[in-house]
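Why do we care about 3D structure at all? Because function follows from shape, and shape follows, mostly, from sequence. That is the central idea of this module. The next example makes it concrete: a single protein chain, its amino acid sequence, and then its structure expressed as tokens.
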Amino acid sequence: MSEWKEYKLGEYVDLISGFAFKSENFVEIKANGCLPIIKIKNVANGDTNLDDVDYHQYDDSLYKFLLSKGDVLIAMTGNHPHAMTQVVGGVSKYRLEINALLNQRVGKFVAKNNTDINFIYYLLKDDGVRTYLANKSSGSASQANISKNDILGLKLHFPSLPTQHRIASILSAYDDLIENNNRRIALLEQMAEQIYKEWFVRMRFPGYENTEFEKGVPKGWEVKSIKDFGKVITGKTPSTSNSGYFGGKYPFIKTPDMHGNIFVLQTEETLTDDGFNSQKSQALPANSICVNCIGAGAGSVSITPSKCMTNQQIHTLKLENQKEIEFLFFVFRGLKPMIEMVGSTGATMINVSKGKFENLKLIKPSDNLIEDFSSKTKPIFLQIRNLMEQQITLKQTRDLLLPRLISGKLQMKESEIKLEKI
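And the structure:
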């Protein structure tokens, strides 16, 4: 720790603020030379995404604002700490293979000669640093801003460049494993979905050549309601005035917990025995299918991995036949346009009642074909769940190591041993 000395962040990096792109200059994604524009909303949760991006034609005058894989970004506008959305001062790494453009109020760090930019990324990911930056911001709770001077004026302890390299290498190894698992999960998910589409959308299921069709549907397949496959349970939030209801062993699923997750293995909130028992009629077993039917994320689908409950925005199917779970998971995903249509009643927010949801119609193939589909895709779902569980372990270990490494309290050999055991 003796080699660690306090300096201002600005002695190690510079910070480039993004450009104020005008909407009238946005172009179609297919235009030659156009690049996505990375905004505040695209730099949440430690990584960068291309969700709902705009595109702009690139020319050399925009070189200063060009983003490449490995760039470290910071949100200079956002919410204060503990908000559900992007927190001001939140740091992300641009991990995408394609170039992009930096929008205003997103900053890009540029390393100086004595700096490993990956070390800076992990240094600024520390909870204490993030909270400090967020608290330095000004403005309203929903529109807080932090200045370039406040960021670069932050005083932190820095080690020598070789030590920076080693710390960044150790923590990056965890992130590389996590990123690799994410790719594997995505590929497995695509594999299972392609089988579903081949069998039940393109109708090229085993034996289709010898199957009699009526009006484009195999003879014997039936039109069913969702409620014909089991019991639909709408979630409910226990009384928030009773603190004894929260902080226990039972997952309490809310819509943000579902986003991007086939299995909801982690939830922001949990329930105690008292909280769970206060509304037993909302209890859900493992391997139930949750569907968000309210709000902007309506139509998202996840599977419960254990005994749990959900809030009132989620309708969940408690299946009578577990062999139907993989088939119904993809069927429910395909219901998103219908959920949006049924739930759009002139109000500002989509809202599908339990009655409307459980009476939505779908086509049920033969039991034998559904069982065949389950036997083919269940191993894929199990692999996805195993990889998601590994992700949790990797992230927990990385997050435990991070503050100790970047403070110099943990010897690097210890952390390397931890990595080898993962």
